[in-house]
Amino acid sequence: MKDTKDPQARLDALRADTERRNPAQPEFHQAVREVLDSLAPVFAVRPELADPSLGLLERIVEPERQILFRVPWQDDHGRIHVNRGYRVEFNSALGPYKGGLRFHPSVDIGVVKFLGFEQIFKNALTGLGIGGGKGGSDFDPHGKSDAEVMRFCQSFMTELYRHIGEHTDVPAGDIGVGGREIGYLFGQYRRITNRWEAGVLTGKGQGWGGSAIRPEATGYGSVLFAAEMLAVRGLGLSGQTAVVSGSGNVAIYTIEKLQQLGANPVTASDSQGYVVDEKGIDLALLRQIKEVERGRVSEYAARRGPSAKYVAGGSVWDVAADVAFPSATQNELGEEAARTLIRNGVKAVSEGANMPTTPEAVRLFQEAGVAFGPGKAANAGGVAVSALEMAQNASRSAWTPARVEEELAEIMRSIHAVSYETAERYGAPGDYVTGANIAGFERVADAMLVQGLI
Ligand code: GLU
């Protein structure tokens, strides 16, 4: 890389170099670019962090370790399938690698690296001593029997077990990996290692080492972050109409917390379409369809009655709302959707998913003065409660739901505060993207600097 002292030129050169060395990984390029684009103000104040002789930036964009493996498994009819397994152990300066596993056909090494890169800074923002990692597989759990999912998880863990551990790397859930999958993965880890090592995975069932409020944490946290952003503007969530995308774990508990705080979430979606319910989402019905029957949101509209309408293939962002919660997947909210939301008067956007908003859409929200909470800050509640689960496991205790929820609320307040204050300090008031990226980066960079060349 070009050995220049000019920080912006260094960042541009690093970006180009990263793209060249990691071809065909557009999501990873996007995630790196978004962070690097925020960092120039730091180097103006702390030039040592960009000092070419330290190579700190070059190290931060390169995972410490990348694991790729074959996952063979047998379906219910005796046929063999081969999927690919991944674990990217990105950065352990602040603690053991920590981050979820995603099972989805779109998973490839670039997707896992984007998620792992985001996770480094997100986890740093929680202040809880966790490094960044991510993993998964291109396996599609959709339409598979429980027995097939179990055999897949057992095969996946038969390779993964040798790389993880409570002090090494602690996976959890993400898209396609929930309580069922974590159960099968934990069972196989325990069987292979002959260890009851509760802290090796988080998102466990509450009867066997899981934390209260972990399933709720990402969605709850994203709503609490939105509430904090609105409070800065003298606004609240009560009485606000909310548009929520997705219908997985994050979306469901986003809807639940919004309803608890007196807002009216009116949508849910999946990859085939969305439902809009003018009376507000009936959460019991949505959960029955999604969590019990593992069905589609189209069924919600069919069963809910006249207040709900299903729009096949449409964009959930067409629905007018005061606040928006993209809680499905990466790049689900683009320029056109942002324009529509702005035109409809949206006041805040809180990212429940990882990188759901495209860079162009983020820019539009910021230019329009919409409060925008980036995923690294807004959805950090999930991994934060995972760290609380590790703490409970280490002390062989189980905290009450009320205690975990209080801690979650405090963590979200502090993530909001540090993002807000850092943005102010670096001359970008109200810009949570800059604030969160810089605050997370400073914590990781400072730890790396004093730990020598690693
Ligand atoms: N997959 C979640 C995330 O994106 C949670 C990770 C965890 O709990 O380790 O942050």
Task: Write a structural description.
The chain is an alpha/beta fold. The chain has helices at 7-21, 26-45, 56-60, 109-126, 146-160, 179-193, 214-232, 249-260, 283-292, 297-304, 335-343, 359-367, 375-378, 381-394, 401-425, 432-450; strands spanning 65-74, 80-91, 97-103, 132-137, 169-172, 241-244, 264-265, 267-270, 273-277, 308-312, 323-325, 348-350, 371-373. Among the domains are: 65-196, Rossmann fold; 217-373, 3-Layer(aba) Sandwich (Rossmann fold), CATH 3.40.50.720. The strands form 3 sheets. It has a 5-stranded mixed sheet with strand order 1-2-4-3-5. It has a 5-stranded parallel sheet with strand order 7-6-11-12-13, sandwiched between helices. α11 links the parallel β11 (323-325) and β12. The structure holds glutamic acid (GLU). Glutamic acid (GLU) is lined by residues 98-100, 172, 174, 202, 354, 382-383, 386.
Relevant terms:
alpha/beta; Rossmann fold; five-stranded mixed β-sheet; 16 helices; 13 strands; 15% strand; globular; binds glutamic acid
- Number of helical elements: 16
- Give the helices and strands as they follow along the chain: HHHEEEHEHEHHEHEEEHHEEHEHEHHHH
Instruction: Describe the sheet with the most strands.
Output: 5 strands, mixed
Query: Pairing-aware structural class of the strands and helices?
Result: alpha/beta
